[in-house]
Amino acid sequence: MFEALATIPAEELTLRHERCRKLLDEFVPDAGGLLVFARPAIYYLTGTLGTGCLWLPREGQPLLMLRKGEGRAALEAPTIPLATYRSYKDLAVLAAEAGAPLSATIAVDMGGLSWQLGDMLRSRLGAHRFVSGDQVLAVAQSLKSEWELRILRSCGERHHMALHDVLPQLIRPGMSEREIAHTAWAVFFELGHQGILRMSAFGEECFLGHVSAGDSGIYPSSFNGPLGVRGEHPAVPLMGYAGKLWKAGEPLALDIGFQLEGYHTDKTQLYWGGHSSTVPAQVQAAHDFCVEVQAWAAEQLKPGARVSDIWAHCLHWAETAGFAEGFMGLGSNKVPFLGHGIGLAIDGWPAIAKGFDRPVEKGMVFALEPKQAIGGLGMVGVENTYEVTDSGGACITGQEYELLCVQD
């Protein structure tokens, strides 16, 4: 009676399965397969956002084992064998019956399970040894196929149109952060945003993004990013505060993600309340520095580069150029990275930071977000999403990075 809304091509899924198997050889060669619990990772490997787990053995067909939703999974993942279970102790029996028995050593996405569920898995499958397969999935998902890149490019086009072309016509100084957030939502939904932003870090949440007017950009924040935000409420420190107005003579930073068909792009657009003649020299210089950093970092995003080197260079550059204090945040808001991978999660692997030394590969996608905090005023800077090509990072979220001036 029903048809799938969309499916991932079988050849695309096969590519992903084989990539994970090769990475098992590299990271956990003693594991006989990968057992995946995080729903976005299950989607990545099957095409359905299943509630349960996926067993990907070294050889042969994977097996999707679900607690619920087998009818939908049959529509969306027609090439993946299905089974249902009630307890973790059923998994070994189901895998054996499917001709793909669980191996003695199993790689598990440990980030996809709570401590409680991890202990339960070990207790129910005591004959098996579990090792981390998180790096396998992180690296696999960082390498985008042409099928994925087409979605991301379309996402980026819409993202730029929303923040750079449409929204400046609808906002003005005197509006509250909450009013601006609601206006942004209307624009984003009209352009196809599908209503959710996913994050992979445990406990991290994101809704729309940050709407930070004036000193909200340096307001104390627990979110792992450089931009401060007052947010809706202490229980929901996201979006924008109804009690904070964007005033003339203040910057407004909109750090908002766009999501299309499960994939995300990230972009920050800076606005100034007033005519361009009212922008202080300090503000313009700080913003220009961030644009320069973004351009240089994008040029370095070539196959073989190390993102740790990019971070080290930009950190030193900020110090020598006199921007060290507010670079990538002020005080406790300062973060030790320049950007991050992105795809099915906003905060994808790797971070552009110290310690991330695996060479960049063609087809990876990064968000570059150099920002500069100015004490007593707020935040300026940029963020855009880049596809790694042979000649460097190609921006997929627009080519215009100026401070947009908006008057009453």
UniProtKB/TrEMBL annotation:
Domain Peptidase M24: from-to ranges: 152-390
Molecular function GO terms recorded: aminopeptidase activity
Organism annotation: Humidesulfovibrio mexicanus
Protein name (database record): Xaa-Pro aminopeptidase
Membrane-spanning ranges: none
Keywords carried by this UniProt record: Aminopeptidase, Hydrolase, Protease
Residues in Creatinase N-terminal domain copies: 16-137
Domain of life of the native organism: Bacteria
